[in-house]
Amino acid sequence: MSHTAIKVIAIILFALAAAFLYGWGVIKSNHLEKDLYQQLYTRGANKVMKYLKKNEWISMMEIEKQVDGIKASEFYSKKKAAVQDKREFSRNLVKTMLEQNLIKEESRNGKKGYSLQERK
Length: 120
What we know:
Layout (H helix, E strand, L loop, with lengths): L2 H52 L3 E2 H8 L3 E3 L6 E3 L3 H14 L3 E6 L2 E6 L4
Helix pairs in contact: 2-3
């Protein structure tokens, strides 16, 4: 192979690598917001589950305390997400956890709360 052919092949390979990295970056940036919200809900659910493993029952007010200040970020991005409205976030988190059968609704002393769902 001639020296010119090797240069052309190297340029083509470089262009393909650059196009691949650009495409990957575009896809990641399109999914970034969804991924950050997913991280927030996962971290919130983990905090609630951890609390429920130590305590048998949790109120909505305690869930709000647990999720207050949760943040999420991706290492490749400067964008961050944080819980802004802990009451709204807690309602959505509880709804999701109930749908996933992670927790169940209970009443204790006339107060509505949640406990871990028994695993079968």
